[in-house]
Amino acid sequence: MINLGLANKVRWQECLRTFGVVSLLHLAVASQAQEKRLVDYVDPMIGTAKMGHTYPGPTVPFGSVQLSPDTDTIPYAMNGKYNGDVYKYCAGYQYSDPTIVGFSHTHFSGTGHSDLGDFLLMPTSGALKLNPGTADQPGSGYRSAFSHDNETAAANYYKVKLDAHNITAELTTSARVGHHKYTFSQAGESHIVFDLMHGIYNYDDKNVWTVARVLDDHTIVGYRQTHGWARTRVVHFAMKFSKPFKNYGTKDFEKQQVYKGFWRKFDQTDNFPDIAGTKIRMHFDFDVAANEEIQVKLAISPVSMDNALANMEAEVPHWDFDRTKREGQDLWEKELGRIQAKLPTKEDYVNFYTAMYHAALMPTEYMDVNGQYRGLDHQVHQADGFVNYSSFSLWDTFRAFHPYMNLVNPSRNADMVASMMAHYDQSTLKMLPIWSHYGNDNWCMSGYHSVSVIADAILKGVYKGDANKALDACIATANYRRYEGIGEYIDLGYIPDEKNGTSVSNTLEYAYDDWCIAQLAKHLNRESDYQTFAKRAENWRNMFDPSIGFMRPKDAQGKFREQFDVLETHGQGFIEGNTWNYSLYVPHNPQGLMELIGGKKKLSTYLDSLFTMHLPDKFFEHTEDITREGIIGNYVHGNEPAHHVVYLYQLVGEGWKSQEWIRKILKDQYHNGADGLGGNDDCGQMSAWYLFSSLGFYPVAPGSTDYWLGSPLVESASVRLENGKTFEVEAINQSDKNVYVQEVRLNGQPLKGYILKHADIVNGGKLQFKMGAKPNKKA
């Protein structure tokens, strides 16, 4: 910019007016304002405290590597029992912790159970220590104290000063490679510890086998197999140092075995290149000058050490750390640019684009650059015509995340469906994934919600594969009698209380999934299948006890459980919720539910009570996925089962209440800062709820092409559709007080009712809300 004095600036503006180009000055100012990229609004620290269970370290959109600090080594069990403290470390990092153990390369985002934490690296100086130490005595090991004042987290970049060693660690990634840069402030002997025992939700026998092979003075390859949440998970690695190490060594922490074989002929602790065992830590030693940098690249592969090396060579063949960082951030800028939003405040910008960030972390790519991956059958497969994905938290993500993907990133979601179909093909059980990661199904949570994702993608024209084969897979999964009460569900129309501890929620979720199958069968003109599953979709009615007005467990003889607490979230027949929240889980037939409850007035009263009553702590103290921060009244937003219910006010003609409560939830449950999430982000589901609701509509029943209208947070937004069209949202008179919708127009014409069609969005156009401070009870 030209630096103009005041007098010169006036004369210059007069000259510009003479030539009709005064707008150039305004363009210069606008250009400066636009220099802030969308990626700069992302704050990976959001959700790293309390229940959010997000990680702060770098990754690229849906990347295989999630390189992040781990702040403790809490074991899964203590004294033979589950250690509840481990729950805080589902993502490896807790904001309140004062120490960092090291930087591992695989993490889940926002889950309520965990695994991973592979291949931890930690730079140290001074005397070598191969024990991580403890939080209360960090000096006893290689961990280090740190301060948030010396910590930076951004999209695809993390930086922290390790106080104990006076080392600055910087991290960035490509899809399959973690790129480290360590700056040693002091000259002398230094080490990089390579911990192959470390893991998240760790226990003594979790590592089944570990191999490390030192190829030369800067290259190491290997793999490890673990038996954790995923029963037979295998991950290969290749690691290179930018500087040759002068020495290296190994310590095996396995207890002494009677049988040692004849490898005992070698001293495997010092400079031995062929290491194998179950509890291995290695160290690589360097002499460094003051302020010297050492870089490390570690690539992973589901298939082989050679593929890991090839992944590194393809993605990060150089030692330009800033280039790796920049290329990853460019990918994030492209991903975030799918929605260009104008928001009321800076805090809203941070929340919105961090939600988009969190909704692009999982599922993750699970294949090498050559398209190979290890399948559910333990064989190596070639992904032909699609990108293979893993880590499907489907109990969470079918609700809003996958519908969100169908809008903003449909090609990727089509590949996710193709990945589910590949999983089915490789399954000896012939079932679609329930909760899958790393070539395993861990069978977590309830329902068979792959069918919802598949039906939604086909009905919205996203998945272009064989739809009839997909329907066959859905039906086979829904008819697998030996899985969690499906046999009794088919025979009786519900799951008996004595057969399953979550009999009611399972029945409700199966009924919804069956409705999805029915919709897909109808779409494909398979009438017999449609009739079968449309009938099964009404099985939710069998759980309703009219004497109390709630869903309730009952036994195989049809008798409702006598000892039953409508507020308790544990042990009452529901998974992670109480009957107040779960009784409204009939997203596919809310009209029928309303009639069963007693009509509009009764449903309205129910909803009013849900949002305004108080749920005392004692009713969720035994349910670790529910905490006070995620509760409004008795409505649990910090967990998923009731995410749709705020929109049900539309059904009773009180849409203004939906509008009021949606805006309260957006304000109450989503904040800037480490404790900015009211519950587990659950692989992007909490964030997807935020994004849809901020845009003013929500998929109440995925498997339908309908979205229900709410109250937008954005002032305006442009959704850049993959088909080249744009769908715009505008909120006229938007403000913190103007939360009530006075009028809705679609492409200039009044939109009656509360339903927006998927076709209305993907065809491009404009959805316009006129907002006001008072409810429009006639709208």
TrEMBL record:
GO terms for molecular function: carbohydrate binding; peptide-N4-(N-acetyl-beta-glucosaminyl)asparagine amidase activity. It comes from Sphingobacterium corticibacter. PANTHER family: PEPTIDE N-GLYCANASE PNGASE -RELATED (PTHR12143), SECRETED PROTEIN (PTHR12143:SF39). The keyword Calcium applies. Keywords: Calcium, Hydrolase. The keyword Hydrolase applies. Residues 41-301 form the Glycosyl hydrolase family 92 N-terminal domain. Residues 307-772 form the Glycosyl hydrolase family domain. Monomer. Pfam families: Glyco_hydro_92 (PF07971), Glyco_hydro_92N (PF17678). Signal peptide: none annotated. Its cofactor is Ca(2+). GO terms for cellular component: cytosol. This is Sugar hydrolase. GO terms for biological process: carbohydrate metabolic process; glycoprotein catabolic process.
